Amino acid sequence: MKKLTEQEFSEKIVTGRGRSSAFYKAIIGLKKGENLLISKEEYTLKHGVGRICKLICNRFPQVKFSHGKLADGTGWVVKRVE
């Protein structure tokens, strides 16, 4: 066991579902042209990354994403197009 600092705690914990999840916040926080790499080890949600992108696009029609699975199967990549 190891004691964590407040910063380590906030970096390691993934809480929330839907719009309160860390992944939703990270994806919606992307600026045009930015990319995000999400590894399988840290992604523990039930639905895939594409579902989160689709939910964001439905809620904010001016935002578009390109997403896909990595070739080696270790995670996903999300790119904000618009």
Describe this structure in words.
- This protein is α+β, with helices and mostly antiparallel strands and 82 residues long.
- The chain has a domain at 34-82.
- It contains three helices and three strands.
- It has helices at 6-12, 22-28, 49-59; strands spanning 35-39, 65-69, 75-80.
- Strands 1-3-2 form a three-stranded antiparallel β-sheet, covered by helices on one side.
- A hairpin with a 5-residue loop joins strand 2 (65-69) and strand 3.
- Helix 2 packs across helix 3.
- The chain is globular, with a radius of gyration of 14 Å.
- The mean pLDDT is 85.
By DSSP (H or I, 4+ residues per run), the number of helices equals 3
Task: Write the element-wise H/E pattern from the N-terminal end onward.
Answer: HHEHEE
Major sheet: 3 strands, antiparallel
Radius of gyration: 14 Å
| Unreliable stretches covering 5 or more consecutive residues | none
Short description:
The protein has helices spanning 6-12, 22-28, 49-59; strands at residues 35-39, 65-69, 75-80.
